[in-house]
Specification:
Layout (H helix, E strand, L loop, with lengths): L2 H22 L7 H14 L14 H11 L4 H25 L3 H12 L2 H5 L7 H16 L3 H12 L6 H18 L3 H29 L6 H9 L4 H4 L5 H9 L5 H11 L4 H19 L12 H17 L3 H28 L6 H7 L7 E5 L11 E5 L3 H11 L5 E5 L10 H14 L3 E10 L2 E9 L4
Parallel strand pairs: 1-2, 1-3
Antiparallel strand pairs: 3-5, 4-5
Helix pairs in contact: 1-4, 1-5, 1-17, 2-3, 4-5, 4-7, 4-16, 5-16, 7-8, 8-9, 8-10, 9-10, 9-15, 14-15, 14-16, 15-16, 19-20
Length: 468
């Protein structure tokens, strides 16, 4: 790579780093999932004395966060710094994967990823979407280097950060089988490759299953079962149409339409393992997230690097089929588009002002100096207290069961009607809510705040439990 190309790569990485550096220090309210991981980190390193536990979550991210918390560092701040590192690392790995086709594919795909609004916006959120993407890209990079055990090992790390990334292991396994069929590679050699990949993947996965065995009284697969149940709660909030992700992606950057052309090129060049593997990973992940009923736009972060590479391939092919002035105009258009997104992201960073609701902050800080257990549907309290233990419920259907289970060990019950609510015509949900509230209202109300959420009024209440 000559000096001019190196300068271009460094510019992409430096601008990506600086914009994110300013962005992560913009104060903003923590996300729900951020507080859950912080709570799990506290739970792990206090041996269950404080924090909270969600069996539906993999362990590696809270273990990593908790290690820094154990050293006395702020979990939210260190989380943002880690996200920054993984975010830039993912941009660089996207460049390396794209560079396997040619240098400009690497530059275009990494630039498109870095300044994609969806991807950039999560550079300030301490959840697993960005870290797991880094490890998944590293696994693919090692796989293409034929380091199959290492690739499987990193796949295992990704899976133990976010469960759906088991699909990556499946994609790479499928790729090995297809490469064997297409290229008629020696069966013994292919078996050895598959064995190495599986052995690598088994390392952290077996450790996780062993942990489950002891943690959940022999129920090895309880986290997967519980995670599947949780996905069905409040499903009406997350159900989207079949075309949801395609429409939202094109809204963010219409140039991604070239990804279709890139995918067709992969089909045409299926004998080339780079084309084959990129297309398989994209199709497996995109198909899965399109198929499931619970859809959140952030889920599609998992396919963004591969989509950007496909888009860059489509752009490159389209450019090569243009002549003279038309080619120059098209190249200028792509350059201006990337520059405009860079400027747009930069302006966003310097003008971004997060919304704070004073009522919610007062609510979440209620237990700052309290030491003990509470029952709640909202984990946000955990980031404002170092001595709090939370027992969570996720729906009105669960509420009474959790309340009765932890009634004796807890001193407070929190009812956050602004986070947990029912549709007006959902009699099933409303019935569970009414029964629960009838029981809870027998306790002593110590905090009550009303807010306007959307067009409706909601209430946040804290009760001191009256022991009977």
């Amino acid at each position: 790579m000559n000096i001019k190309k190196e300068i271009i790569l460094y510019l992409v990485l430096i601008i990506s780093f600086l914009t994110r550096l300013f962005y992560i220090f913009k104060s903003s309210p923590p996300w729900w999932d951020t507080t859950v991981y912080a709570g799990m980190a506290k739970y792990i390193y206090s041996a269950g004395a404080v924090g909270l536990w969600e069996p539906i979550r993999p362990l590696l991210w809270p273990v990593l966060l908790g290690f820094f918390g154990f050293l006395g560092l702020d979990l939210i701040i260190i989380g943002k710094i880690l996200i920054l590192i993984f975010s830039i690392g993912s941009v660089y790995l996207t460049f390396l994967l794209g560079k396997r086709f040619n240098f400009w594919i690497g530059i275009i795909s990494s630039s498109l990823l870095s300044f994609m609004p969806l991807y950039f916006s999560f550079s300030n959120v301490t959840i697993t979407d960005i870290p797991v993407l880094f490890f998944s890209l590293l696994a693919v990079y090692l796989f293409l280097k034929q380091k199959y055990f290492s690739s499987g090992l990193v796949c295992s790390i990704a899976f133990n950060i976010r469960f759906p990334y088991g699909l990556l292991f499946f994609s790479l396994l499928l790729s090995l089988i297809l490469i064997f069929i297409i290229h008629k590679i020696n069966l013994k050699k292919t078996f050895l490759y598959i064995l190495k990949l599986c052995l690598g993947f088994s390392v952290f996965t077996i450790l996780f299953l062993i942990f489950n065995y002891f943690m959940y009284n022999g129920k090895l697969f309880l986290p997967f079962i519980e995670a599947n149940k949780i996905m069905s709660f409040g499903l009406w909030l997350w159900q989207k149409g079949f075309m949801y992700y395609i429409i939202e992606l094109l809204k963010q950057n219409f140039i991604l339409i070239f990804g279709i052309l890139g995918l067709l090129l992969c089909f045409k060049n299926y004998k080339n393992k780079d084309y084959l593997i990129i297309s398989i990973i994209f199709l497996v992940f995109f198909s899965y997230f399109t198929y499931i009923k619970h859809k959140e736009f952030r889920y599609i972060i998992s396919v963004l690097p591969y989509l950007m590479i496909l888009t860059a391939l489509g752009i490159d092919y389209f450019k090569n089929n243009l002549k003279g002035i038309f080619r120059k105009i098209f190249i200028s258009f792509i350059i201006l588009l990337i520059i405009s997104y860079t400027i747009g992201i930069t302006l966003f960073v310097f003008t971004y002002k997060p919304y704070y609701n004073p009522g919610t902050e007062e609510f979440y800080k209620y237990f700052t100096n309290y030491k003990g257990e509470i029952i709640t549907s909202n984990p946000m309290f955990i980031v404002y207290s170092n001595d709090l233990k939370i027992n969570l419920f996720y729906s009105w259907e669960q509420s009474l069961e959790v309340y009765n289970k932890y009634l004796n060990s807890s001193n407070y019950i929190v009812v956050d009607g602004c986070e947990l609510y029912c549709l007006a015509n959902d009699n099933y949900c409303n019935n569970y809510r009414d029964i629960f509230l009838e029981v809870v209202n027998k306790n002593s109300l110590v905090f009550n705040k009303s807010l306007i959420r959307g067009d409706e009024k909601c209430e946040m209440k804290i009760y001191k439990i009256i022991k009977r």
